[in-house]
Amino acid sequence: MSTFNGIVSEFPEIRIDFFRRNADAQPPLACFLSHVHSDHLAGLESLRSPFVYCSAATREILLRLERYPCRINYGKGVLEARQQTFKHLSKVLKSLPLETPTSIELCPGREIQVTLFDANHCPGAVMFLVEGDGKAILYTGDIRSEPWFVNAIERNPNLIEYTSGLKTLDKIYLDTSFTEDVPFQTKAQGITELLKKISKYPKDTVFHFQAWTYGYEDVWIALSKALKSKIHVDDYKLRIYGSLKSRNPRALSSSATSSQKSDMLREGLEQLVSTGRNIPLDWDIDTLSTNSAKEVIAILVQKLRKNIKNQKSVHEEALPKTIYFPYSRHSSLLELRHFVEAFRPRDIWPCTVNTAEWLRNGTTIGFLFGQFCSSKEFEHDRVMQAIAAKNALCSQNQQHASQTTVDSDPAPSSPNQEPQDSQEQRSGNFEPVFASLLVDTQVSGYQEETNLNPEKPDDLNTLPENLSARSASDGPIEQSEGIPQDLDTAPEAPAGNVSDARTHPSSTRKRGISNVSQNVPEDEYRETANTSVDLN
């Protein structure tokens, strides 16, 4: 999760990926947003000016984001209209084209040039190259710098001056989500592993991909092609993805096509009846059109009479219910070094830092990337040294105050109370550090966790667990005070994806893929270690 405070020292008039007011910095004249994951949206909802520049895809997604409680309450009829969190920013958000240098006037006589590059992270995610007044920085946002990606960057005509050594970047503001020296498999390798595992399952298996944030779209498309099936998403996601220029727009659907409804219904009902479970009639009626009600009842009666027993093969029983595959949307340390080496900048500023952990482990920019930079002095290392020195001084003062209190006072007859000045000193010795949710991800490394749930049609009489009891509960859903709600941007925001309460996810399609959303609390907006696929 990003800990970057938005301030670019080379260009103090701008802010990137952090929009809260900073009393110690001048108000920004322009803002920039790299992507829609929620750890990069701090303060954006209340922003009224200045303009926020981003990619076209990021703008389209952001204007359509809805919080989980609002989606559920709208689906239950509690809200009369959809509540899109950032819709009021439509005039503030300005899209910029990719790989096109664009001049932005900050104030009369003051301009900067900004160029956007794809970050290989999620739809709309970009890097920003900012140039002006003889300075140049590259802000990566969240990035997956796989070998092919770095090779393309090195040849990009808008960056070749910096990768060839003709010019030098003053600083790269780098995504340092993973700093353990552990290699990652590429995205392509992870998808290949997944497809090999899925190929072992029967043709009538339904896979549920539990994507809790944006960034796994390549996996969906690969599965769609391999299984020769559309990807079934809820109406909410379909509206968002429909606003983008998809590379494969025909791969998405919010429900089965009319030509396949009959086969899906028969297969699903046959499995439901053969397991002897209770079948709620309105489940099938609601999922189809009103004109299909008679068809539902007729097929239901037919299957009840037959009462076919469900017989699963030994091979099917032996297959795991959960498939794990490696897939990370962030770079490994090796990949980051390869990326930095391509530019050889003067300095690196890490955008994801657990200060306490870095101090404890002695982690420095010089150690991580020093050999790939053109300078040996790093601003972040100086800041960390100052924090370490201050913490050491505070610790010494605390020990001295404690010893003075014990030596100068006789043993009291009542419990010893700390002198007032000592208490004040202790309260003033607290050193604020960056908050980070990446402790679990910076230990012995790994890749993210994703779930894909293949289900047999015999399980289709119940809603997937991801829809959760909250969506079926009585009464409106309320946001807990002090707990940020997801916006489907989870880090990642990153913010979790939840199905519309008005529609059930398509889950009866033969050999199909269904994207079943779920609510992800804010403390889960972090990169995890492995990618998984559940087969329930």
Describe the structure.
Helix 3 runs parallel beside helix 12 (333-343) and helix 8 (261-274) runs parallel beside helix 10. It contains 16 helices and 17 strands. The protein is globular, with a radius of gyration of 27 Å. The relative contact order is 0.18. Helices cover 30% and strands 13% of the residues. It has 536 residues and is of the alpha/beta class. It has a domain at 187-324 and 450-469 and 489-534. It starts with 13 loop residues before the first strand and ends with a strand. The strands form four sheets. The protein has a six-stranded mixed β-sheet, with no helix packed on it. The chain has a five-stranded mixed β-sheet with strand order 12-11-16-10-15. Belongs to the DNA repair metallo-beta-lactamase (DRMBL) family. Residues 322-354 form the DNA repair metallo-beta-lactamase domain. InterPro entries: DRMBL (IPR011084), RibonucZ/Hydroxyglut_hydro (IPR036866). It is found in: Nucleus.
Strand order of the largest sheet: 5-6-7-8-9-14
According to DSSP, the number of beta strands is: 17
Give a short account of the largest sheet.
6 strands, mixed
| Computed structural class | alpha/beta
- Please identify the oligomeric state: single chain
Instruction: Give the overall shape.
Output: globular
Number of helices: 16
Q: Tell me the distance between the termini.
A: 30 Å
Output the radius of gyration: 27 Å
- Bin the helical content: 25-40%
What is the percentage of strand-forming residues?
5-15%
Poorly predicted spans? 256-266, 272-277, 279-288, 308-312, 408-449, 456-474, 477-486, 493-531
- The overall pLDDT, averaged over residues, is 74
Biased composition (Polar residues): 398-407, 414-427
Subcellular location: Nucleus
Main location: nucleus
Protein name: Protein artemis
